[in-house]
Amino acid sequence: MSGFGVEVDAAVAAVREDVAGLHAELVRYGLVVWTAGNVSGRVPGADLFVIKPSGVPYDELSADRMIVCDLDGVVVPGTAGSERSPSSDTAAHAYVYRNLPEVGGVVHTHSAYAVAWAARGEAIPCVTTGMADEFGGPIPVGPFAVIGDDSIGRGIVETLRGHRSRAVLMRNHGPFTIGVTARDAVKAAVLTEDVARTVHLARQGGEPLPIPPDVIDRLYERYQHVYGQATDDRRSAEREG
Ligand SMILES: O=C(CO)[C@@H](O)[C@@H](O)COP(=O)(O)O
């Protein structure tokens, strides 16, 4: 018995399944080594989110091992998985959920090319149409912050609030991405690494050509509202508004 009620219990169960399964996508797309990356998802209709336990191998991340937290990042006692320590980035994820109500999922990885840009403290310029589609401009750099308090979360929110990009490169650390759902945030993490690698490769042969800002705007608008299917997470969230 969780004490949440039937509807919230069902929502928690669905987010547990979703978040557990999405960690396999981080592995599939080569975004993580060992246990260095995490996915969380907000529980619709409740001030709760679900995140993985800290330092547990990805092939052991079943739904019942996911951890339910409140929006202060405190583990809900007595729930499945609560005997374990949550991800060391739980406070950062919680800060994002508290301060950006439209966010339904948060992802952090140490994907190699994105971390290389973060280590230099250099924003990734928007020089491909695919990047304009997903990010609508450059991927910005967030401040240097270390695990232990709200500072990573603050840096993510300060950098991404009002920004089109769903990704921030936290300086000397790595990418954090947000989405309307956990899956949407995983997609942003996959595409962040893809553009980090592509723009890095492009620069080996010279300076990439810029895309005019009005063209970036048009590509971004089309991708958000026309690309894919009306049932896609982002377009559904927009309709539900
Ligand atoms: O960046 C760090 C630690 O520096 C963490 O995000 C990473 O190792 C993953 O930690 P968790 O297994 O989620 O606790």
Proportion of strand residues: 5-15%
Any idea what the CATH architecture is?
3-Layer(aba) Sandwich
- Give the rounded overall mean pLDDT: 97
Shape by Cα distribution: globular
| Spatial ordering of strands, largest sheet | 3-2-1-4-7-6-5
Please estimate the helix content. Answer: 40-55%
The total domain count is 1
Distinct compounds present: 5-O-phosphono-L-ribulose
What is the count of helical runs?
8
Low-confidence stretches: none
Q: Specify the CATH homologous superfamily.
A: Class II aldolase/adducin N-terminal domain
CATH class division: Alpha Beta
- Gyration radius (Cα, Å) is 18 Å
Structural class: alpha+beta
Give the tags.
241 residues; L-fuculose-1-phosphate Aldolase; seven-stranded mixed sheet; 7 strands; 43% helix; binds 5-O-phosphono-L-ribulose
